[in-house]
Amino acid sequence: MSGLEQQLEDRLGVPVIDAVAAAVKMAESLVSLRKTTSKQLTYRSPERKAIKGYPSHYQAENFSR
After folding, report:
1. Which of 11, 29, 56, 64 is least crowded, fewest Cβ atoms below 10 Å from its Cβ?
2. Number of domains in the chain
């Protein structure tokens, strides 16, 4: 917030956290720890089901995964 958080803290008398600065620090820490997004599929694909009101050529069984 480019210094605005200090003015708010002084005026309100409570700690104010700059959300952008906090997000940047979080990203920096994840990079320094060499953390990345998971490459494992941890969820099951949804089951195919009929789409009511659509013609048969739009139904899931007519498409490959």
Report:
1. 64
2. 1
